[in-house]
Amino acid sequence: xxxxxxxxxxxxxxxxxxxxxxxxxxxxxxxxxxxxxxxxxxxxxxxxxxxxxxxxxxxxxxxxxxxxxxxxxxxxxxxxxxxxxxxxxxxxxxxxxxxxxxxxxxxxxxxxxxxxxxxxxxxxxxxxxxxxxxxxxxxxxxxxxxxxxxxxxxxxxxxxxxxxxxxxxxxxxxxxxxxxxxxxxxxxxxxxxxxxxxxxxxxxxxxxxxxxxxxxxxxxxxxxxxxxx
Length: 229
Description:
By secondary structure, the protein is α+β, with helices and mostly antiparallel strands. The protein has seven helices and eleven strands. The strands form three sheets. The protein has a five-stranded mixed sheet with strand order 2-1-11-5-6. Strands 3-4-8-9 form a four-stranded antiparallel sheet, with no helix packed on it. Strands 7-10 form a two-stranded antiparallel sheet.
């Protein structure tokens, strides 16, 4: 069992509790198991904002003032065809809409509707290389001097419900909820749903990115990198 799990972890010896959690969830439910989806009448009347309400940097404020017409999403790293995608181009790709429950590590939840292209669609356009293992999301918000980032592995990146969402509840994302684009990775907790995405980087290792643990909260507060639910 341990030998079979080593490929999910950067640790060569024993499984940590987080590794075991990831292995057991994917073993029991299957890699492509879907998060529950809801009806429109089950959507929450209020979907609170959390974390950063606005990055507030001059660069972000300029993009927001122009309704993100000048925003571009670079897709870089271990890809054969680096991309630089506009919001209009993201919207022109095949779209998926889903109504799911957002579960926050702080204990609250809300049901909302998200729309955008599957992350898989974008990654296939870029042509990820065989040595790729993770997808890193670089974001506009900052905490002190540290830029926010998050990451997922390729199993979650290619999951059918993993979206680069530009719409929420049939409207463009507002600033508080992560405009112009945020990640939706529905089988993980809310802190993995990176907002204000400014770049997507495909990598072989998380070492050397931020504090090396795969995300801002993982580096600074000891959160688990895999937050599966």
